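Much of our argument rests on the idea that a fold can be written as discrete symbols. The amino acid sequence and the backbone structure tokens for this protein are reproduced below:

___
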Amino acid sequence: MEEAIANRNFDDLRELFKAERKLAKDDEFVLIKVDGLLKKKGYQISNIPLDQKVEFARHHYNFVWNCMKLGFCSRSTPILTLQDLMETSSIEACKELFGLVEENMNEFKQPGFIETCQNNILRLCNDLLRRLSRTAETSFCGRIMFFLSRFLPLTEKSGVNFMGHFNTLNITNYEETDAAAEALIAATSSKAQTPVDGEEMEIGEIEEEGAKEIVVTPEMYRQFWSLQKFMSNPNLLYEKDKFLAFKRDLSAVLSLMTANKLEKLSAEEEEMADSRQKKVSNDVFFTKYLTSPKLLALQLNDSSFRRYFLIQAIIIFQYLNAESRFKPPAKKMVLNEEQGKYVTDTEDKCYRLLSDTMPRGTAFVAGLKKIMSREQEWNVWKNNNCPDFSEKADKGAMQMYKKRARVPFNPTSLDLGTPELTKLWTNEPDVLQACRAEKRKFIPTLADFIRDPLDEMDPEQQVEEQYKSINDAAFQWRAARLLMHKSPGYVFKTDVKQEPVTNMKEFLERNMFNAAKTIDEFREAILEREKKEAEARKKVEESLKRKLDTNTKIKSSASPNPHTDPVLSDDNLSQLAQDLSKFSKKLAKLVGVSEPKATDDVTEKDICYKILKEWSEKNGRSGRSLLNLLIADLDVIEVAQSSIKASFQR
């Protein structure tokens, strides 16, 4: 049997196993004998050199596993074989052999096997952890802990810090005496200020701008590293004097970080930093802080170091505010109102500092908040005595997936992938004609659109200016679009001498009024309105003319004949232009003359004189004809009448 095991011959082992069972009084004796021979073979493999040991161990383990499945040995024998190999091998060999445990994790979790071998696997991992140094073999310890976290179920109490204990043995050693710290800090600063031989700066040379130097005093050094005792045992903070010391030291450190923020990297520098970090992330890691006074100023200038410290503080703050069933009620482990406010405000400050710490500070803070939120959920789960998640799972049997029937391709039918899209394209035989259908025309008719604005423009309606829809910029845009499309008089050939339109409101009102004349619904009302406006304008003109004639008869004493038409000389025109200078913009329109172009060296009086001069040359310098034209504007006619009267009385 021993030879069959050494050669890993299943056929011979099966025959020998049957023969032993016939001779033995109990099957257990046969299993025990096979277990002993398999373990003996495992001890022999442990003496093989390391470069061949892993391969022989893998073959032997697979052989033992198949023996267990065939019932030739006990269920625990595969795990015990691996455990014996680990115990008799060096740490370097265990790092390679542990890969067998990781490779077969899914087989260990099979029902019927995990119940009998879970404790053995846990014992194997714990024995390895006791042999390893947490600082020297950190990576291997992490592999083991990661394997246990995946192998053990969530409800396994051995994989959970159920009582919430802290590792108080994690002590951070530093120079606690001010004299020693001050001497080291002074030596560091003097060394930094002393120039290297042969590298003195020449006259006129500009020193390169480097990282901003952070001044670290011995007191700051002591305050910074004294916080680590509270980080390893947060329960100390529930004592009033300890909390005051923690508050004083932490506030000083955060103030120093706030006053010395790290400079933001450019996009190119940030990308280079990310690529560099990815290259070294698998090789470089730190398990313990370096507490030399020479290094603290450099550490505070390092973004990773700042993040380590600020994350520690945020974790402590979450613990202090969290409700835990394992905080002893007898010790009154609850913060008062003032302490709780400080913890909340300082936590926000830590998040702001993390957000300002480059690279990718904002993204880093978002990920950290998500992690802390998940951690709070795990805390609630532990407070509820770690209930089994499987109890909330769906108890029903999972339905088998049914394959969708394949639809053969039919070139005569249109299939655009989804029923709704296919329906959209098959509603009408001609899609373009369907787009031109009347029901798809959403543009309002011109009559419906201008009905309300026309009523607002009617003086009889007495609509105040501020409430008219024509003042709305959005309405003006829609009106311009619709009138350009519907109104034939919107675009017309303009006179070259005519002044361009600058008032959009007046332009649209005029076009809507003209467009209404072409619509039967508004034609009669528009004509009636124009008739009334013409009559009112005629009455106003007659009234002004009568008033002008009356004033001329009563007040005119310069000429014996009031009906005499005065002839305007150049001096009269100059005086009249000076008096009408404030109406220079109205004057050209009233007398029907094109307005001269304004320049910087031309005054309003000159503009009025040119307008009056041009008109008088065309109309025989008739003063009465000029007054008859100016009568359309009451303000202008009064000034013009007074000016002409005064000029002829001189």
Remarks:
- The two ends are 152 Å apart (CA to CA).
- The mean pLDDT is 78.
- Residues 2-159 form one domain.
- The chain has four domains: 2-159, 178-189+213-268+284-387, 443-555, 563-649.
